[in-house]
């Protein structure tokens, strides 16, 4: 991939609440990007030789430092992205927990003994890959970054981190706090927009490109790695379905759908993006879902979308669906006033020809299609180019097992849209990415395996 334009000198972030400036930061150009990589490369040998226990101790200290500044970082996140204050703080604390988790897992990450000759030793050794470029998103900037940074650091890699241009102040402050607890050069942060990102991923002196964000950007990163040979880890967009069976309580199902579609104003990679509901419970389900949306709108319980560009994209999907025959039971109109707020929206009579069903809308929109059977809903849910996550609501174990077997997604959830145990990891499918992005398996992604064979020398 070849960069087509140089970064601007600086970027200004506007508040999604009222459009006022949050602040201005510089955009790293080619000299700054190359310098950041050179700094991380120079620090890599000593960091790789540092004992796993010591690396774990230092990452734990970085996590503790972040915990001390949690409210400050959360406030920055709220100002830049509009995330509700308690959710922003929750994201920072989740990041602290993730760093602590990797600080514990890193020292016990090990190779495997192999079965060889009786007088020989055969085993594998996990070695750091080198320098990791981590490109992270704005929708949960601390929690997501903590996963990639923590796993890379405890396995002996050094990191150049580029946070999203939609929350550069949050990312820069996160980098300052963590880097202060680590040896010089082990973690370097660069800020900038897409041009800076392209400059970073184009560089040949990188060993890993780790990305969480849009499918379009993920594809560009994967193409760049074809030239540079970097290992790619990417979690990209999703168009996650929810299938509602005919034997569940429609009010409970609507509550689950609302949580999945409206939490963080729908700006979560695993948000519910399309709903297939059995005709037998469709009407009470739609009535209850519209009531859930109406309550959120009436109580102003939604955060704004990250900016007006995102709101324009979300409303574009909704407007096109309404023009093609969908009906808005709640929401669907751009509110007056400053900022980038968008109402919780419920659409009925949707079809799979509509963009709101085929693409990731990434806003507080719940498009619904009525189906005549669970099998039909499962079939339609499976027919998509994404494969991040999927949820089914059913009281039948046979239907749950069939969904688990047939849904082509990295994560399948039954009867809880955001359920899951700590430390879980999944491999996204199709256009949603590749590689493990979380959990203990991310330590494997950040290392490369060396096979060792040792024998006694010949006595002849």
Automatic annotation (TrEMBL):
Alphabetized UniProt keyword annotations: Oxidoreductase
Kindly give the SUPFAM superfamilies that the UniProt entry links to this protein.
Answer: ALDH-like (SSF53720)
Can you say what this protein is called? Aldehyde dehydrogenase family protein
Pfam families (alphabetical): Aldedh (PF00171)
> Region labeled Disordered — which residues?
1-24
Looking at the record, the residues that make up the Aldehyde dehydrogenase domain are 9-452
Keyword Oxidoreductase appears in the UniProt entry: yes
In terms of superkingdom, the source organism counts as Bacteria
UniProt cross-references to InterPro entries, sorted A to Z: Ald_DH/histidinol_DH, Ald_DH_C, Ald_DH_N, Aldehyde_DH_dom
Report the transmembrane regions from the record. none
């Amino acid at each position: 991939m070849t960069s087509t334009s140089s970064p601007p000198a600086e970027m200004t972030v506007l508040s999604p609440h009222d459009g006022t400036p949050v602040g201005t930061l510089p955009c790293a150009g080619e000299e700054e990007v190359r310098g950041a990589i050179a700094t991380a490369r120079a620090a890599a040998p000593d960091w790789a030789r540092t004992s796993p226990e010591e690396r774990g101790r230092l990452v734990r200290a970085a996590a503790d430092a972040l915990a001390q500044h949690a409210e400050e970082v959360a406030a920055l996140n709220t100002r830049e992205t509009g995330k509700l204050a308690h959710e922003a703080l929750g994201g920072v604390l989740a990041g602290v927990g993730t760093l602590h988790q990797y600080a514990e897992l890193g020292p016990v990450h090990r190779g495997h003994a192999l079965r060889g000759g009786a007088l020989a030793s055969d085993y594998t050794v996990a070695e750091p890959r080198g320098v990791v470029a981590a490109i992270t998103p704005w929708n949960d900037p601390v929690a997501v970054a903590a996963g990639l940074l923590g796993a890379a650091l405890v396995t002996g890699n050094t990191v150049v981190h580029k946070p999203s241009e939609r929350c550069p102040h949050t990312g820069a402050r996160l980098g300052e706090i963590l880097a202060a607890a680590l040896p010089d050069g082990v973690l370097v942060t660069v800020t900038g927009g897409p041009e800076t990102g392209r400059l970073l991923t184009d560089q040949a002196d990188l060993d890993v490109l780790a990305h969480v964000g849009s499918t379009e950007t993920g594809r560009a990163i994967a193409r760049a790695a074809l030239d540079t040979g970097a290992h790619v880890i990417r979690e990209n967009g999703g168009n996650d379905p929810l299938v509602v069976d005919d034997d569940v309580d429609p009010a409970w199902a609507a509550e689950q759908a609302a949580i999945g579609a409206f939490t963080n104003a729908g700006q979560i990679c695993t948000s519910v993006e399309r709903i297939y509901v059995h005709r037998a419970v469709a009407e009470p389900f739609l009535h209850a879902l519209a009531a859930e949306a109406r309550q959120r709108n009436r109580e102003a319980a939604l955060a704004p979308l990250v900016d007006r560009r995102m709101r324009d994209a979300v409303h574009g999907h909704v407007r096109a669906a309404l023009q093609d025959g969908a009906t808005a039971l709640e929401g669907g109109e751009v509110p007056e006033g400053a900022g980038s707020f968008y109402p919780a929206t419920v659409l009925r009579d949707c079809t799979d020809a509509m963009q709101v069903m085929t693409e990731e809308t990434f806003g507080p929109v719940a498009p619904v299609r009525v189906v005549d059977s669970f099998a039909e809903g499962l079939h339609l849910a499976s027919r998509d180019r994404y494969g991040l996550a999927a949820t089914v609501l059913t009281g039948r174990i046979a239907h749950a097992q069939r969904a688990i077997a047939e849904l082509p997604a990295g994560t399948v959830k039954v009867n809880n849209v955001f359920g899951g145990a700590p430390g879980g990891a999944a491999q996204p499918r199709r256009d949603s990415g590749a590689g493990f992005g979380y959990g203990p398996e991310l330590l494997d992604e950040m290392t490369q395996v060396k096979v060792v064979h040792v024998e006694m020398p010949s006595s002849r």
